Amino acid sequence: MKTSAIGILYFCLAAAAQQPPAQQPPAQTTPPQQQPTAPGQTTIQAPPELPKYPDVRMPGEYGFWISFGGGVPQGQPTFDKGHSSTITTSSRVTMQGTPKLAESAEIGFAVGLHNALRVSYFSTRSSGDFTAPNDLTLWGQSYSSGWLLSTDYRLQDVKVSFDYLTWPYPVESRRFRLKTLWQVQYVSVKSGFDAPTQPTTDSNGNPLVDANGNPITYMTTGTRWYFTPTLGLGTTYYVTRDVRIEANATGFTIPHHTTTWDADASVNFRLSHFEIGAGARAFHFKTSTDGPYYLRGTLYAPTVVFRWYSH
Fold first, then answer.
1. What residues make up the domain containing 104?
2. At a CB cut-off of 8 Å and minimum separation 6, what does 245 contact?
């Protein structure tokens, strides 16, 4: 009996060990309840974010570039005496001759997504003859009426320009650009006069001298220059990635002092790293009228520009 009782107890313990534990019912989760909306109020949900499109950079909006160009300007600057002059005779002269080839060069750098920093230079000169219609005093040198006089001048302009994208923004894949142009320009005009038919030596070939014993000369030169800020607008339209139309206009004036304005327009065609552009340019300058002499003029010319891009 004792052995049977022990066997029955062992069987009960083994059965209890094999029985799986009682499972607990899963916990119930209560869904979050929305706050009741007060009468007269509506619930506003934030709109989904608009899809973002990457800005497309066109040629000239990355890397750097170098260009060279030229054109034959038209126009004749004038020379005259300024407000501080004490001369009683006339000094007004129209500079003669057709300007020679205007040479230009530029180097530019992309700054940011669609902005640019450009440094440019151009120069032109002209010379010619005319007969003085009356007595003249030019750069302090006196010339008599009826003398044959020669004139020459050289105009130079150096410009630093920051081209800032103004509209549209963001550009995305649009083809049009409107930029504000923030510039500083250096303008220099050197002019000279001479009376080539007037004698400077006697019959024996000895130099003629003035009352002070100095050799007589009728040649005289002078230079006027100034720095000026210029402000303006520039537009670019990309017909395709390799064809663009561009136009720019800037200017600045200090009344009764200096004036500068500059405008250009061109159509440009690109092939790989190279581009050729054809258009026109006009440039106006006036040096300070406060000095004894000043020059002013407007030159305009058809232009051709060759440009190389780094990308």
1. 67-309
2. 236, 237, 239, 265, 266, 267, 268
